[in-house]
Amino acid sequence: MTKVLFVCLGNICRSPAAECFFREALKNRKNAPLFEIKSAGTGGWHVGAKPDRRMRAAAKKQGLIIEGSARQVAVEDFSKFDWIFCMDRDNLDDLLGMGANADTTKLLLPFIHHETLDEVPDPYYGGEDGFENVVRLIHEATTKLALKLCD
């Protein structure tokens, strides 16, 4: 079983979306290997909270569902998960500073070879358009990630 962790700042927008969309992408793959998929935040401000209502609404507009409960990343995660995918450079730097393995802790978009971006923007302080764009971006990225990790 391959264990994958998605990480953003508060675990209420980007990383829970990536967790849910990656899980959905795997459902569409015949003979996909088994995965354990989780998400976490580098900060603990929202521990126990549902994903941001604006993120859930943007996903729903696109026919996607985001569920979960926020948690903070723990040092134990570095040995538990085979892959840790960070949404932005600050997340990556925080995890590497805590002792994460640089060979298995990566930025999501460069890992899937996204054409133009290397970070998933944080929509938290923006408007609805930002959430809708991030939902599309994460959905595309996790679909490509499923192809890459299943082949």
Tags for this entry?
single chain; 151 residues; alpha/beta; 6 helices; 4 strands; 42% helix; 14% strand
What can you see in these coordinates?
- The protein is α/β, with parallel strands linked by helices and 151 residues long.
- The chain has one domain: Rossmann fold (3-Layer(aba) Sandwich).
- Helix content is 42%, strand content 14%.
- It has a four-stranded parallel β-sheet with strand order 2-1-3-4, with helices on both faces.
- The protein starts with a strand and ends with a helix.
Please state how the strands of the largest beta sheet are arranged side by side. Answer: 2-1-3-4
Count of alpha/pi helices: 6
CATH class value: Alpha Beta
**What overall form do the CA principal axes indicate?**
globular
Which class do the helix and strand fractions yield? alpha/beta
The CATH homologous superfamily is named: Response regulator
Unreliable segments of 5+ consecutive residues: none
- Shape-level CATH architecture: 3-Layer(aba) Sandwich
Total domain units: 1
